[in-house]
Amino acid sequence: MPMTIGQVASHAGVNVQTIRYYERRGLIPEPDRTQSGYRRYPEEAVRRVGFIKRAQELGFSLNEISDLLKLRVRSATACATVEKRARSKIAVVEEKIADLRRMKRVLGRLVAACETRAHTGDCPILEAMESPGG
Predict the structure, then answer these.
(1) Is there a contact between 26 and 70 (Cβ–Cβ < 8 Å)?
(2) Is the confidence at residue 97, as pLDDT, over 90?
(3) How wide is the angle at C-alpha 23 spanned by C-alphas 22 and 26, nearest 5°?
């Protein structure tokens, strides 16, 4: 049963502008229109938007998601290719985690320096941000 853009957005948990944006990006096929110009989406559109949102939550960019969507139709080679891309994404995530841990350590040291410093006008955190070495 065809759906309106509002229905697709509601079922997929996004707003109407998101649906239109995905359409412009080619992530969702342009739907048929009624004689009066209203978009009529197939139920598959809700699943496709859900796929896009879940892929974004896993850290994939819209360009990467576009590639993944194309792979969905080529099932013979898709799994190995998707696995390779997922492993690459894991490496990126691990790198980000390491960066975040470094940032946490540095911030922890700065906060500790702030707590032990006598009450003066100088803030160790601000001083660290102003210095070239950070």
Answers:
(1) no
(2) yes
(3) 85
What are the boundaries of each domain within the chain? 1-73
Alpha-carbon separation of residue 59 from 21, 73, 85, 86, 110 (angstroms): 19, 22, 11, 10, 30
Contact 1, 43 (CB under 8 A): yes
Can you tell me the distance from the alpha carbon of 15 to that of 8, in angstroms, rounded to the nearest whole number? 9
- Assign 40 to helix, strand or coil: strand
- The model carries a pTM of 0.70
Question: Maximum Cα–Cα distance for the chain, whole Å?
Answer: 75
Q: What is the pLDDT, as a whole number, of residue 45?
A: 95
Alpha helices in 13-74 (DSSP H): 16-24, 44-57, 62-72
User: What would the pLDDT profile of 49-89 be if each residue is shown by its tens digit?
Assistant: 999 999 999 999 999 999 888 887 666 667 888 889 899 99
CATH of domain 1-73: 1.10.1660.10
